[in-house]
Fold these 2 entries.
Entry 1:
Amino acid sequence: MTLALSTQTTGRKRAAGSRWLKLAALTAALVCLPFLALLFEAVQGSQGLWSHLAASVLPKAFLDTAILLAGVGILVASMGTGAAWLVTAYEFPGRRTMEWALLLPLAVPTYIVAYAYLDILHPIGPVQGAVRWLLGYSSPREFRLPDIRSMTGCILLLGFVLYPYVYIATRAMFLTQPASLIEVSRTLGVSRNGVFRRVALPLARPAIVVGVSLALMETLNDIGASEFLGVRTLTVSIYTTWVTRSDLPGASQLALALLAVVVAIVAAEQYARRKQRFAANAQRAGGSIERQRVSVPKGLLLLALCLLPVFVGFIAPATHLAVEAYTRLGYAGLPVRFLANISNTVIFSAAATIITLLLGSAAAYAARLHPGAPSAWFYRLATIGYAAPGTVVAIGLLIALGAFDRTADQLASSWFGFSTGLLFLGSGAALLYAYSTRFLAISAGAMAAGLSRIPQSLDDVSRMLGETASGTLRRVHLPLSKTALAASGLLVFVDCIKELPATLLLRPLNVETLATHLYGEAARGTYEEASISALMIILIALLPVIWLARVGRGEHR
Amino acid sequence: MDRPLPADPMLQIAGAFRRFSEEFTLGPLDLAIEPQEIICLVGHSGCGKSSLLRLIAGLDRAERGSIRLDGVELAGPNTFVEPEERQIGFVFQDYALFPHLSVEENILFGLGRLPRPEAQKRVADMLALTGLSALGKRYPHMLSGGEQQRVALARALAPKPAVLLMDEPFSNLDRDLRDRIRQDTIDLLRKTGTTAVIVTHDPEEALSSGDRVVLMKSGLIVQAGTGRELHDRPVDRYAAEFFCSFNKVPATYRSGHLETALGRFPCRLDLADGSSAVAFIRPQAISPSRDRTAIAGSILRRSFRGEIEQIELAVPGNDGALIMRTTQPTEGDHISVVIDPSRVLAFAA
């Protein structure tokens, strides 16, 4: 037997394996770029400007942000945990439906819920009108409900659409707790009601923390709701500092302050979760918690309790938007630019999804092919964008890509005598960049989770059978993790469609997406014009929620 | 074994060395494997046998030394052939069948370089050879453990590897199934003339499976030879005890003999007269006897195991119980035994 081997082919194959590592390194560098640019610009900023910001904008913005975070945090923690416990521990009519229905508000972006309720609760809107009719008042001057445009209103509305983050995590935790834990605590003299406080709640704490921190990141990311409702958070301040004052150094300084808040939340989350390992170890044998049957009146009460967040967070705004959209369609047909907006939205989101899946997979696959410190760092850096608010990423990219665009334009003008215009910012490439930076953690996480379920021996045997690293990815890993990847692709796609702040800041001139169109109409006070866009976003955002509901039911049947 | 041996070994490992941690290094190792030879690499877990297999496969790199396959250097100071280029087959302990591919597609996986019809024919041949023809369309999760093992074997053999490496290929099988599958596998390797290295931790499997057994300990080769050689003439206590449990009786060396409480046994030890030594006496070397020179003992415990009976004996002058295994039926609480001196091993104390 003769073996035809040459060192030349050997060199080529080795390069193929390390190509993934290089791609992961490039991904990490690209993700870090906007943050570094932010830091650079903030340090460059003039001293005088900063002291003005520090004195006039920052204290109010910080205070409002802190109050909003605290309020939303408490609200989502109690609503999410409470709902999760009700559907886990009690058997009542409609419980199975409520299990997935409680997820529905996830499909309503914060700016849409605010936008819908501004209209629903308007002094001459349906709710206040009905209340006045019931009480016998004839005009808003005689009676009106407290204005929704307030800090309280903002906390309530954000809480009612963000609680599912806590609900999902906590319910999963409750479902994996063995019944024996509950049973043993009862033999030790804890009453049925005491079980929640003394056993279930402490066990679920890590999950609650995860859910709350996700909800808080969404709160920090929010720009539409806080702005519509008149709450001047840091995020809103960053946006207005750039858009109305064109003060990029100031905006980047505020963005850094916002990043500090994000880091604090992440640190608090890590600290609160440090014992999760024990909780995870404890969840081995035994069936899950047995649900308590309750009397019919009590069952109806529990159903009503579960229905409340679903109604406020989903049914009411969605119904209102559907009615508005139907009316709008009835007297004026589709808005002029509606189809263009939809195609812009889908094209940008789809392109960003493909990039995100590709780079996320590269980061995860490189970590598997080359285990060790470098690939682990590339992975970590590539996924830091998940916690960064869209505004922060957008300001960072405005700085970095703006500088690049200017340089390219100058070089082209002086060397070739023509202008390139804004290569990145003008083409929408910057928007794709921002989406990918923010959502890379979703695809990379899904790929890493998918890969971790595949035994290393499959990689080895594939190579022993003559397949290269890339061929193994194509023939073994992708087919085996395609469900997880598809699901993460769907999540990324929908997140791109819902994304507002970065889209507002980075979209090319004259390009509107569904989200920015909605924002524009709301800013002009012409709510009904955008109801169709809002409804479209909700319908698209329902797709991953439906998928999530199916997965949740399949696993625990 | 009357095969003509060519001049060059199929696989030659020279001075292979790899440091895994402060505590564990592999090698330096030398090993030559002849064409069509079946080698059993055996040792306790953590002895480095699987690590050696991964070095040969190219799944891991040696720091020093070289590995040559049929005269071509696979790994050396300036060479490293990637695993996919080595033409070496590998059967993993967990079989590593691709769960998303059918049996046929699994076997086809490594045949990408063949034209399609030829590859299909090879798949059919391998299915027939392993008795899996009826299961080609099934998926791995629909197969029994034994069937999965055969698919893994068929898949590894399909590309006609120069050498087949098998890492604990039978350890996931039930005991009664294991012997049969092992025999079938060895027969198949012989039929296809495959050079193979089988890793196992089971002494019995090692002795019964290959042409040669290579015993490893702490990353080094203790002894290599036929099963008979390793069993009957182990180079040290470790090798001896790996394949058999012994009665260890203290002894004194004197003029070519071991003097023990149980008698004198001839031996070849390079020791000064009067040095202390140990006699390793196989339980099977002790048998009941009515001879007048026999040693009288009282039975402490019997455990009947079907074919044989294990008896623990108290014998005057010997500390602890003397363990014997015999096929002969015995009765009563007392018994006289003789020891076959040719089956007593001697080691310095």
Entry 2:
Amino acid sequence: MQENVSPLARINPAIKLGALVYVMVLLIAAPTLRETIALLALAAIGLGCSGWSLLTLGKRVAPYLILFLLTFWMMAAFGKGSTELWSFGWFRVTEESISHAWLIATRMLAFVFLSLTFIATTDQTRFVMSLIHQCRLPDRLAYGFLAGIRFIPIFQQEIRTIRQARQVRQQQSIWPWQTFFAISLPLFTNSIIRSEQIAIAMEARGFRAERTYYVRPVVTQQDRLFFGLVCFGATLLRIVV
Amino acid sequence: MNSWKMKEIIVMMMLAVACGVLYLGWSTLWLPISAIFGPVGSNWMFGIWVIASPLVAYIIQKPGAALIAEVVAAAVELFTGSHFGLSALLIGFAQGIGAEIAFALFGYRKFNTLTLILSGMFAAIGSMVYSLVVNGFAYYTTTTLLLTFSLQLVSGALLGGLLAKIIVDALVKTGTLNGYAIGRKRQKRDAA
Amino acid sequence: MIRCDALSVRYPGQTADTLTDLTVTLHEGETTLLVGPSGSGKTTFLHVLAGLLPDAIEADIRGRCETDGTVGILFQNPDDQFCMQTVGAEVAFSLENRLIDRSQMDDEIYNLLGRVGLDVPLTTPITELSGGMKQRLALACVLALEPDILLLDEPTAQLDPAGQRILMQLIEELHHERALTLVLIEHQLDRCVMFSDRVLVFDHGGTILRDGPPHEIFGQHRAELERHGIATPLLYPYQLETLPPASTQAARLRKARHDRPPVRHDTTLALTRAALGRRKRTIVDDLSLTTQRGEWIMIVGPNGAGKSTLLETLAKLIPAQGGTVRLFEKELRKWKNRHYYRCVGFVFQQPEFQFLKQTVEDELVISMDVPTPERMEVALRHYRLTHVASQSPLSLSMGQKRRLSVATMLLEPKDVLLLDEPTFGQDAETTAHLIEMFEQARANGTTLLMVTHDMELVHRHADRVLVLGDGRLQFDGTPTALLQDETLLEHNQLARPLTYLYQQLEEVKRRAGKRLPARAY
């Protein structure tokens, strides 16, 4: 999520989320590949309007093509069907499974495009603030959530340090969940201690429900237009195609 | 929400975010395994992705904790731009609801091994419902589907519920949880 | 004004009071310095004044404590006081709580950031700030509350020297605001006593041992304070130039350093034209150096100069990007991890991340090749951990955690020990104990490479010092040679330590053949 000047970035985040989720629901309800591809095209248009350059878009989308293939492969090799085309070991590819695989993998890709559209054009703080003002999310939860996500990079760094320390002390686990336990324990302990300090600091600064807002997203005519257009367009695609 | 202390809210958010960051690492481990072994061979790993609910609910012991924790952990994937994004948020919601039901069934009075394991399993059910509807799991062969589902149930119970219990019990020993429901109960029991 | 009457505080699960029957009045505009041994309830006292007990912090509170006006409090850890993503939004959080109208916020925010000298765009992510900048931002957020009473809980304890200097300057300026009542806990006593009006001395059990103006407390009662294990200012009431040579302070400062040769001229690590960095970014280039057995090398330099990167490279955690790095003439990448980490130890900056077991005892067991009950007992005693042997390492105090993390690395002798700011944020007693451990390791032939910001340590204990800055090794030599090089010190924001300055001064006096008259002021 980053600073972005595209028209989509100006849309109210909660409204934008609502519109995108509506498209997702339509995707889930689309039973054939044709409709799914039509909605995928819509999502691609959204991604095109996200304000990212083609190069950035290419870099961001490339890994998902691998995921696309993986999803396709999973469904193709493990899906049900009677007309067997190819089999090897526990893999069994059939005509039906291939067609289902196309559907599910395309749907997955459309989801990814919608997610990326949202991520590319939405500022974290503005998103959470719009959840307060447009979705009545309680202040304390919203500000608590913001306090938490600030720690994403810090936690990533801490996990890296814990792994390094395990290497230096030559500690290896046999099972992955043992590693999970070993990493999570110091990580959680530290975050509990920090939580307590953050909560105290927030209360010491007079945090309360009665307040003004530095960031206060409102719903404009433009937002309503956007919501209407996306919902109408998507529904139309679904019916016509 | 008014019965929540500020520090309970923050600790829930921080632990859920920490879980979300751990999920990311677990996802990179999962991708290659699932390509080779398919839904059956990779779903023993499922339970970790629902650990936030039992973990946080066991510490805070209040209605809503399980649901919020899982949704927040899923939101981390959205906010870091992970490959699951918005769908992660939806699946997190489905899992969170499942996990929450387990505690609600007992009127939020019982937070023990049984309810924690149940919450891991219910989260698996929530996830399965989502996968059937959205990810086309219904198209899998019946054997694959049943095997996947039972594996997720077992994994949710063990890697979700039971591991959460083990981790929190170890956390209690460090004394950092003394100010929360789990720590207070433990102290009371020790005093008695 | 602050008035406490028979104030007692007890935390849940504790058997003794943290504050006991405290009666004290602090006046408007007064600056009060709190001193006392650790665990004497100073921080609890500030928390009570900030109105955090018993709601935000659970505790049983008896007696009365009244404060007139708004209270603001600045905490120690620069990272744990924020809840927003960007600088502007963070300051605004305080203003929002005060119900300031949105239209006035931007001006107010710029004004506050100006007051703390933080000249960054409002959209700067907080994660991109240095520790010192974060703490100044935290101060701006507290000032945004327009406090009548400002409480400061060791605000510089977790900053590097450059950050400390700037923050202390700001605090001193605040003291000049007539209406502002300041109460502070701070270990930089020499700086604080200069502008404090009053000193409250806390004793074990949360009682007040002494209460009076600084010259009285640190003049007449200095010996008593030292008996109670309370830190006192190094120079006060004198200055460096006026310190009487017969005083205990002068004796402390006179402890001379001796340049020592390495224990054995036997090369351990050798870097040849090495380029160090993470991912694609090169942080230090063209680095060549060799280390000897039993040599204590300290690494200094500004933040981001690559000190930690150097340690991580030597610990075989990240590969060198160019050149060669060898241990015992064998390239690092050719070493098997299993063998390498028997020779090389690494004490991380945050000890809690390097523990692997559920109890202190188990932690020590896996650090020994052949654990026996006798060895265990000796180790526990040596590192002063006997009474916490069965506790979780994560439940220990900061000093205990640090000692345990050093123990896990030193129970089996190492050829090289890498230390990332091991004394950072530690009290004087733990620091002294750690130094003792490291000196022993040195005597046994271990090469110690230690990153630090503490120039006092460099002057007193380093055999050799490396200055990293501007992407290269700027200096490699004895501390004495470094401390003589004015331009190099200034360029890398390094300050000369007090002991060095004093010894220089004595040298000048001796050469001049006369003694300057000592005067107190």
